[in-house]
Amino acid sequence: MKLRSFMLQYGEAVTWTGALVLLFFMNTESTFSLCPFKALGISWCPGCGIGHSIHDTLHFNFGAAWQEHPLGIPATAVLIWQLVKSLPITNKNNNYEPGTSITGHTGYRIR
Along the chain (111 residues), what's the average pLDDT of each consecutive run of 10 residues? Predict the structure, then answer.
């Protein structure tokens, strides 16, 4: 199977799986952060702790997840739902073929 056709068919599922695997194995003891607010020296951010919360939810530690960020548990459910929804087994009506889009427009063709 060619890489382009593989990514057209499984790209979204690979992306969601990768995100969940990275969040599952992340080091929560590290002081490293991807937060742009923290990098700018701003101490408060509405999303701070959600990555740790998702990590704790994936490890079934719901008390710690709630303390880190209350939206981490629903965010984990959304990530898992997006993964399941993007699998070709569960998505029988996908149109992941070259030249198609969600709206059904075939796109512009160069002649």
Answer: 78 90 89 82 87 94 95 95 82 55 52 52
